[in-house]
Amino acid sequence: MNDMRIAERTVSTNTAKITARGVQVYYGENHALKDVDIDILSGTVTAFIGPSGCGKSTFLRCLNRMNDTVASARVLGEIKLDGEDIYDKRVDPVTLRARVGMVFQKPNPFPKSIYDNVAYGPKIHGLTRNKTELDEVVETSLRKAALWNEVKDRLTAPGTGLSGGQQQRLCIARAIATSPEVLLMDEPCSALDPIATAQVEELIDELRSQFSVVIVTHSMQQAARVSQRTAFFHLGNLVEYGETGQIFTNPRDPRTESYITGRIG
Amino acid sequence: MSVGLLTLIILGLAAAGFLLGRQRALSAVKGDARALHSLPSFYGWSVFLFTAVPALLVMVAWLFLQPTLLETRITNTLPAAETATSSTDLVMADVRRLADGLDVLVAREGLDTAAVAALAADLPALSDRMAGVGVAFGADLDPAIFNAAIAYRDLGASLTGMMTIAALIVAAGGFLFALMRVHPEQRARNLVEQFIVVLLIASSLIAVATTFGIIASLVVESWHFFRIYPASEFFFSTTWNPQFRGGSDLGLWPLVWGTIYVSFIALVVAAPIGLMAAIYLSEYASPKVRATAKPLLEILAGIPSIVYGLFALVTVGPILRDWLAMPLGLGNSSSSVMTAGLVMGIMLIPYVSSLSDDIINAVPQAMRDGSFGLGATQSETVKRVVLPAALPGIVGAVLLAASRAIGETMIVVMGAGAAAKLSVNPFEAMTTVTVKIVSQLTGDTEFASPETLVAFALGLTLFCFTLGLNVLALVIVRKYREQYE
Amino acid sequence: MTDASQHAAAPKSLLVADSRTRSRKAAEMRFRLYGMMAVGVGLLALVFLLTSVLGNGLGAFRQTFVQIPITLDEKVLDKSGTRDPAVMKKVTTIGYGKLVQKAIEDELAAKGIDTQGLKSKEIMGLLSKEAPADLRDRVLADPGLIGQTIAFDAYATSRVDGYFKGRVTLETAERDSNISPEQLKVAQAMADAGMIETRLNLAFLTASDASELRPEAAGLGVAILGSAYMMLIVLVLSLPIGVATSIYLEELAPKNKWTDMIEVNIANLAAVPSIVYGILALALFINFMGLPQSAPVVGGLVLTLMTLPTIIIATRAALKAVPPSIRDAALGVGASKMQSIFHHVLPLAMPGILTGTILGLARALGESAPLLLIGMVAFVKDFPAAPPEGLMQPATALPVQVYQWTQRADPAFVERASGAIIVLLLFLLTMNAVAIVLRRRFERRW
């Protein structure tokens, strides 16, 4: 309980890490995201919920410009990280992504060793000066991802040989190895069994102390369990955004209420 | 009777069988097709198939075996003195040529059998007339050869006659057999379908037979070669120096060296360019660029190798000689390992690139997303994630390209030269296994000599090499594909 | 925290790229450039190859002719006056040669062209050695011409032809034993006077090959016919056999070791070097079965064996693309397995099968290595007869004709060979275009 209080206190004092204003996304002719305004706070887990195709994943992918890899996608509006527009022409998406990490829906470890999977980010960004430092980063990251004890004896084994839950935690370790400020998670538990899901959820809560975490989820229970703030998306609109407790117990918008009570979605 | 005519007669008989069989089935039920087990035409087809297929098989088998039979029979009639002085094969070649020449004479001048026999009276005159129809004999005609040629023609004619009779008997037998069995209760459809399945299986065996034929012809003739030429010399000697009058050195190594050297240069050109082109087209190029550049590159793959050969001979060779080899003092030959390797490399670019393209596309998008999500640039993603993941497949593709390079013939025949030597200078003319297969088999040497037969041993070597590479590559690629399925 | 040192790195501005980012970006651009260069090199090679072939070969379709009015003197050509071709055959090309020589000298004198002191033999040297034979053929074909004065277009010799196409110059003629600068000057004067003309020469496509010394008369007729015969055999044999094999393997065969072996076997056959097929043909068809050398039937058979794997692979892909629901539907109304295949699956797969067949034929058309081994490199002057006898008579093939011409000494043959390649490429282009149209027209998305 003590932890919870601390968490709640942090929420109230934390500043906006990412601010988005009037964000529109088009896939070709399809207007996928309409006029989204949101402030994502630091040191907080923010959950994006909503029915399939509501634009929550699309918005998530805007936050580290992963939509750039989709040729037909166009993003309008303004998204600022620490006050700097991330769609500014001078911004290299590569540096942005080093600061805004991402974990995907399906575990996607590289077909390399566990060690190389985690070391990949620090290597490409040149974060370490020597092998000892790199070893240290790998160990810390694996520890933070609660995977160290399970894999410390087989760091050279291929990452693809782990179980699904372990693979996803490896991907999280891989993402936090570059010390991002924000961690985006796109339905990170949808491919996992309940036990692995519980482990990952526990992990997310711990990560909050160092990163802003944004998690897209299908499961309202999960959102309620892990997040402090929740945003509800519907048909490309951001319908409602507020403290998780308030969204789930006292939604202001009738659409949110319908969704939460299971009438739409 | 000619084979074509015989085929026509058999097919005609079979067509008649179709109509009769159908008719017979219908008339047995007084024209009410519903009373038949199968559709009327199936009864017709059953007669057709039983008439045509066995008879045509007999004909083909006969045509296949007749030459061997003819050869052995005539060889046995040759006087011992003939075969003592020169090899049997050589004598038989003369016999065959003379017999063919006589055929032409008969066709052209309408000679009858007696007139042909009378030709024996004046062999020198016959020799001249033979030269007139394009069959030249070096020495004077030997009466024994003339007699053998006459016997050859006679036996050939009677064998062909026997074949005609045998095929017609089989056709008529099948015709009657099938026609008698036509009966309203007969399961004609099932019968026809089973027959067709047998035909389909037989067709699929042709592929197996081809492989068998390739291996058999290579192994048998190589065995002949190794009986008259020591295998240790062939496999371990480093000299290739065939002589017309025997005493040749037929060492494999200079040819293998040339082959490997040319293929190596070809791969050094094709593998990086093909791979980079595939990476660019699949990872970077816009759909529009890809849609134009890819088919254009594939045109290179559709161009026959003779075109590349000519390109090497008249364009690339002289350019390399005048601009590189001569100024650098490395040689003055326009055909060189470099010429052939470079041109072959160009030919292999689309081959490597389309294989690698498939393989790169098989790497799941999730891998790329994972890497981009960590802030890797596109080239870092390609170099550190996509390529390592695709490596086995790419190795397989390069091996397949290597096997193509080793087996390529026209480019090296026209671009690499004919001198068998072990040299490291890429601007020197060297030669390859395939070049020597062509030159040893298109030369004028007698077939049974080691100089000719060595081509089969070379062919066997080549076959084993390429087969090994292919199997290895296919195994690697298959393993790779399974990894992502 | 142990990792404080890394986290402590103050958040840098996104808007300013640090040196590492800049160098990574440069590496990215370099890599991209390498990719573009690789594609560029490939396309450049294609352009270079095609321009080289076109540049060398287009000249083969144009030929230099010398126009001479010739009076066909009855006293020389038909002393008996019977106009009986059998009798007239006794006059050899030498007789005609004299007639041509007199005619050209008269014409030169009539036009007032300075012959630069050339001897008669040298003046005749401007004409192809084929010219008297051409004239003889023409007269024997139409004895009624005798006594008339006809306009005779003789081929100029390859050197004169080369002079008007720019291949031969007065300088190179100095060193050439076959032509002298004076001869070229006379030729130039003749061209100025309208006696020599360079124009389209369709005989390149229709005439048969000519000997080493007469490149100007060499044509592709026999080669095109031989290739056509072989393609006919390949089509007639490989399409039914290939389709039958594919139907068996794809639709009927049980999945067991035996059919697995057949499949592996076919995959490997597709990768066997073509020269090995040539060895097979030599050993099996020619030495063992005793089929004649250089005959289209042998070439057709070996190309069939080579093409079969291609057609089988294409056909199986086409059969596989027909959805199983079609088969189920046919079986569901009580059709037999065989009926469902022949009535429904095969017709639906036909466009794919035909496309594959055409592409297979195109590859077979360009194949030369195995044909070298079965004696198709022989010099063949006579056209083979119509099939079926013609299939057993000597012929040659387009790609082999190219090879043959490149082996000859006279550089004029290089032009011929490149010209032949243009013809070959046009055939291939047509076949591929037909295949693409077929695919576009009938492609079906399920």
From TrEMBL, chain A:
Q: By its UniProt entry, which InterPro entries does this protein fall under?
A: AAA+_ATPase, ABC_transporter-like_ATP-bd, ABC_transporter-like_CS, P-loop_NTPase, PstB-like
Q: What's in the GO CC field?
A: membrane
Q: Does the keyword Lyase apply?
A: no
Q: Which UniProt keywords apply?
A: ATP-binding, Nucleotide-binding, Phosphate transport, Transport
Q: Which Pfam families match?
A: ABC_tran (PF00005)
Enumerate the SUPFAM superfamilies for this protein. Answer: P-loop containing nucleoside triphosphate hydrolases (SSF52540)
Q: Work out whether the entry's keyword set contains RNA-binding.
A: no
Gene3D superfamilies membership: P-loop containing nucleotide triphosphate hydrolases
Pinpoint the ABC transporter domain residues.
Answer: 18-260
State any GO BP term from the record: phosphate ion transmembrane transport
- CDD domains associated with the record: ABC_PstB_phosphate_transporter (cd03260)
Task: Give GO MF terms, alphabetically.
Answer: ATP binding; ATP hydrolysis activity; phosphate transmembrane transporter activity
What PANTHER family does the annotation carry? Answer: ABC TRANSPORTER I FAMILY MEMBER 17
Q: What is this protein called?
A: Phosphate import ATP-binding protein PstB
Gene from which the chain derives? pstB
From TrEMBL, chain B:
Location of this chain's protein in the cell = Cell inner membrane; Cell membrane
Q: Which InterPro entries match?
A: MetI-like (IPR000515), MetI-like_sf (IPR035906), Phosphate_PstC (IPR011864), PstC_N (IPR022182)
> A single Pfam family, by name?
BPD_transp_1
Q: State the UniProt keywords alphabetically.
A: Cell inner membrane, Cell membrane, Membrane, Phosphate transport, Transmembrane, Transmembrane helix, Transport
Instruction: Please report the record's description of how this protein sits within the membrane.
Output: Multi-pass membrane protein
Which PROSITE patterns does the entry mention? ABC_TM1 (PS50928)
GO BP terms in the entry: phosphate ion transport
- Record's GO cellular component, any one? plasma membrane
Q: Where is the ABC transmembrane type-1 domain?
A: 256-473
Q: What is its main location?
A: membrane
Q: Which residues cross the membrane?
A: 43-65, 158-179, 191-220, 260-284, 296-320, 340-364, 385-406, 453-477
Domain of life where this protein originates: Bacteria
GO MF terms here are: phosphate transmembrane transporter activity
* General function of this protein: Part of the binding-protein-dependent transport system for phosphate; probably responsible for the translocation of the substrate across the membrane.
Q: Which family does it belong to?
A: Belongs to the binding-protein-dependent transport system permease family. CysTW subfamily.
Q: What is this protein called?
A: Phosphate transport system permease protein
Organism source for this protein?
A: Gemmobacter lanyuensis
From TrEMBL, chain C:
Q: Which organism is it from?
A: Gemmobacter lanyuensis
Entry GO CC: plasma membrane
Localization terms from the record = Cell inner membrane; Cell membrane
Which InterPro entries does this one have? Answer: DUF3333 (IPR024573), MetI-like (IPR000515), MetI-like_sf (IPR035906), Phosphate_PstA (IPR005672)
Q: How does it sit in the membrane?
A: Multi-pass membrane protein
Q: Which GO terms describe its molecular function?
A: phosphate transmembrane transporter activity
Q: Which UniProt keywords apply?
A: Cell membrane, Membrane, Transmembrane, Transmembrane helix, Transport
Per UniProt, what is one Pfam family of this protein?
DUF3333
Which PANTHER family does the UniProt record give?
PHOSPHATE TRANSPORT SYSTEM PERMEASE PROTEIN PSTA-RELATED (PTHR43470)
> Which spans are transmembrane here?
31-54, 228-249, 269-291, 297-319, 340-362, 417-438
Q: What is this protein called?
A: Phosphate transport system permease protein PstA
Matching CDD domains = TM_PBP2
Per the UniProt entry, what is one GO biological process? phosphate ion transmembrane transport
Q: Which residues form the ABC transmembrane type-1 domain?
A: 224-435
Q: Extract the SUPFAM superfamilies matched here.
A: MetI-like
